[in-house]
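User: Modeling request: complex.
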Amino acid sequence: MDQSSNADWLARSQAAVWHPCTQMRHHAQTTAPGHLPLVPIARGEGAWLHDFDGKRYLDGISSWWTNLFGHANPRINAALKEQLESLEHVMLAGFTHRPVVELSERLSALTGGRLGHAFYASDGASATEIALKMSFHYWRNIGRPEKTEFLCLAGSYHGETVGALAVTDVAIFKDAYAPLVRAATVLPSPDFRLGEAGETPVDVAGRAAAALAGHLEKHGEKIAALIVEPLVQGAAGMAMYDPEYLRLARQLCDRHEVHLICDEIAVGCGRTGTFFAHEQAQIDGQPIRPDLVCLSKGISGGYLPLSIVLSSDTIYHAFLDDSVARAFLHSHSYTGNPLACRAALATLDIFESDDVLAGNRARAQRMASALAPLADHPRVEYLRQRGMIAAFDVAADDPYFSRRFYRAALMREALVRPIGNTVYLMPPYIVGDDEIDHLAHAIRGALEEALA
Ligand SMILES: *Cc1c(COP(=O)(O)O)cnc(C)c1O
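Assistant: Request completed. Predicted assembly structure:
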């Protein structure tokens, strides 16, 4: 039994670990309002995280949107233990193995065979870079080397490496590195909150698509790809939009010979109600077909770093040649790691055997009714939901709001970490009704405390 306490791990972590997405000084301060508590976790079980002092927290944001079926899930654990006994890793250049083949086949099947080639990396930002490089290199390979530019949406987030920052439009992550970045063109977001009086979400989508159309008319010749987060722009603060935008964007990209890259890193794997979010946009009764899809976060069940770019036959075939320079040479040491792929296979097994998408419809309904009373709160705006993501904005003119709220939620045994003034829930797909109610109750209490 581990006899150490939270205090031991706090001090050692603050001294030796440089934490991500964090001003380390906020951990060191112990007084409100700037304080950001650092929480040492001893173990996880289901939707709960347990610290070293006997306190527990319900993981309302799936540990940064990664965990789908709970911590220490027995089925994923069993698959990983079995995999460990046979093959922990082998390089993927010149070698292959069962988990990577099976995973690639199953992902291809999930796209109806439309995206039949899976390229592997370890994190989301790398998947973004791979998709951008593939698009750029495709146009070069087919003799259109002038197509070198990328389009992204206002508020977009596609990762934070220097290449991915090119298509990320979040000032706090980007501004310091602006001189390093070859920035893409930022087009208006279809975020429904931008609607003017009398406009529906479909109208806002139409307006944003008209801006895309105007840009493509003028500059389409030079553009390689448009990259979008389908339906929900996560890091922008769960900005949600109508599928109509994706439908129109697909048609416009086709007309102007521009790739459509769907970054499903956050919204894929059932998060929005369908396995891929882009499936909710249809043309002639069929889901739209992106040219490239990026997956990461939930695909390994939240267990291991894994990202995948799924590509169309057309793109894949443009790289086949005797010339090595025309090949896609991008590589990472842990590309296609067998343990990570096996975790992903176990995750897909659960989707199939438990009919997770149907279960999530009931869970999403419960989330909606648990949060519904907040709509009447005088400081709550735009209460919104898409599948297993629910969010609202808080009218608060307080730079410390998100930290106050976060601390107050932790006090109520809930991990809910607002993005600015947006509070959101994105729980694992195993939360029960009582746990959803627990989260809603904690949110209500934390809101009152943070606003007091
Ligand atoms: C998290 C995220 C990324 C980046 O993934 P990392 O693994 O953190 O590099 C890219 N795009 C979207 C939409 C994301 O939510």
